Amino acid sequence: MIQTTSEIRQKFLNFFYTKGHLVVASSSLIPNNDQSLLFTNAGMVQFKEVFLGQERRNYKRATTAQRCIRTGGKHNDLEKVGYTTRHHTFFEMLGNFSFGDYFKKEAISYAWELLTSERWFNLPKERLWCTVYETDDESFKIWADYIGIPYERIIRIGNNNGNIYSSDNFWRMGDTGPCGPCTEIFYDREFDIDDSSPNIFQKDSDRYIEIWNIVFMQFNLQANGTIKPLPIKSVDTGMGLERITAVLQHVNSTYEIDLFVNLIKSIIKVIDVDNSTNKSLSVIADHIRCCSFLIADGVIPSNENRGYVLRRVIRRAVRHGRLLGTKEVFFYKLVAPLIYVMDSVGEYLKPQQVYIENILKKEEEQFDKTLERGLALLDEELANLKGNTLSGETIFRLYDTFGFPVDLTADVCRERNFKIDETGFREVMNRQRKRAREASCFNNPLVINISSVFKGYNCLSLHTTVQLLLINGQQVEKITVGQEATVFLVETPFYGASGGQLGDTGIFTNKNIEFNVIDTKKYGKAIGHIGIVKIGQLCLGDHLYVHVNKIRRKRISLNHSATHLLHSALRQVLGSHVVQKGSSINDKYLRFDFLHFHAMNPQEIRKVEDIVNLQIRRNLTVTSEIMDLSTAKKKGAMALFSEKYDQHVRVLKIGDFSIELCGGTHVRRTGDIGIFRIRSETSTSVDVRRIEAVTGEYALEEIHAQSQQLQEIAHLIKANRNNINKKTYELVNYIRLLEKELQLLREQRIKQEIKLLIKKTITVQNTKLLVSEFINVDLKTLRLLIDDLKNKFGSVIIVLATITKNKVLLIASVTQDLIDRINACELITSLAVQVDGKGGGRSDMAQASGTNTQALASALASVKEWVNTRL
Length: 871
Ligand code: SER
Hints:
By secondary structure, the chain is of the alpha+beta class. 38% of the residues lie in helices and 26% in strands. The protein contains 22 helices and 35 strands. Strands 1, 2, 3, 4, 5, 6, 7, 8 and 9 form a 9-stranded mixed β-sheet that branches. Helix 6 runs antiparallel to helix 9. Bound molecules: serine. Serine binds at residues 42-44, 95, 171, 213, 215, 236-238.
């Protein structure tokens, strides 16, 4: 009996559950607080701190089916996806983890039992091979003596090119972080492939498929390339769900497993193609998974970082849709079938289905425009190309300035037999990245390796020591007057911008030094204070008295607490579909973005404002508590679904009204907020609404400003507070009346003018020509006149002009039958030159304006001759 992908996923989790593992939910695709990773790319990412011994959980064994993305970062396979039998952007990684609990023997035995036991996956033992790290005798022995795999099917694999810790059998998370030797299990598909060299595992072999990687986490890789032992020995395993399913379903490609077969069937229906083996279908099937889950985890298409990866993947999918022949916007229609085929994992997408669809739809519509423009530019470049290779500079320019994705440039060039200078492009790109990196602290190994203790919930000033000084990302020993730098302290009361809350400002001093902090940022576990030395010289190891700008911090805290009240109030008034999509909290106002499908009406806005103000008047106590994530969730704490949270989280409670996970700073009681006022409600993108609001003094100022505005308007229209509505209404009606009268007058005037104009018409070589000047007539009237005249004559050349506000306006119009000889655009250009102006338009209608009013008469006089020579 063939097992479905869903059944296989569940079986894996059940197996480890019976072995005492806690089934932990997949974390977000966006790793929180980990600057070294763009996307979650393995099951271990959510446990990184546990491996490092920086965090403890109340369980020692866990199992997960983790959503992963491997594109855009270190593992950049986008080009290959869809064209090979097993590359994907998005996949699920099944894993079991031991945190200082079992180690090699149990990990290997569990894997063997699950793979081979009749009760579980029941794979033939003789088809399984394994690899171990060259020097890992212990694992070799376990496989050989305890499990009983023949020696010849256990391969030792050493370091690549002799580079220590760089081996297929030494797994590392990145350039730094947890790592260790690993053992991998391969499945022999017994293909008719004559390939039996021991190195087969290091190649992309079609016969031997790697199905499971078991890592023995033992070390922490340092930025300088050395390793330090970890406090506990752990296990991290990873098995691609799609791969093991292909093996268990006896198919050659992961695109042939039930999940993809069903998804591709739905795509065929939506796109209406008849070639079901077309590779573009695999591309689209892969990409709809990647894009939907990325959007569900909070990414939106943009030109930077994660948003840009998402944009590229959407664009690649859309282009493959176009290659299959669809002209319609289609990609968003695949979200519903995806939810269906992903079964229990699809449930995660359901609440956001409409949102995901809208984002995809809008992006595809927008991309159609970029595609048109980009292709035109590329056409031009290729037409002017000397030789047959498009330069790296050009590819970069198309990408950087015009947003035309590199893989599309590559696709188009491939289709038209042009080469692209990929190396050149990478060089230009790297140069630009390096420039950006040098100015930044993110990804800086010096910063990744330190941490700062935040003390700012309870105190705003303290004595502390400087632990790192950076200028443009480079470490320095000291900084002097006028220099801008980022300072890292051992302890700090300064809040580093995060969770939407702005970073603190303030001052560092001691006897001889003054350093002004203009911003504070969080880089992983470190807090960086960006500022300028005002007095003296600041050195590494200096002891300082540091204090936060109290007034500013207080204002920020008012806005942060008010944001929580607003969030709960919105859910009360609009419904529980309201989820936070982003926020920005500073000392002047707060901004809150949330999911909601329509603009709010004034009653709803009022209701939300009233509820928040009521909570302020109730003067509720604000408390915080650290607890574990599952307890927090049980208590109903709202969390940003797109964030990864630590095991222990800070829960912020405002009386009985709001409970949220939050690391920010807040008021002690809601009464401190004083007053809350919504300033605007707008939209930022499809289905995301944005509220801007103010609190405290700023709210009061807002109210004063509005009342002053009202007074001024009242004064202007000679009304007072009591009759301002009535007066405004009367005024509007009066204006409408005047407009109607004006329109009537215009029409009458046109009728009269037309009579006169008909008389003025002359004939040049059997063609009617009308040239006339008016005094002070607006463009709209001139155009109406032209329409009427064209209707009357059927065939005519018209030039009308007027002088208003010391400027010449000219319109030329030609009926369709004459445009091949008399082009209105050329005619107007010849006149524009004469009146010192500029003009343009279409061949049947064009207009110009100029500054030389004196020259108008002679310009108009020239028309007859101009026409005469062209007829
Ligand atoms: N972290 C290892 C991998 O990604 C095992 O899960 O292969």
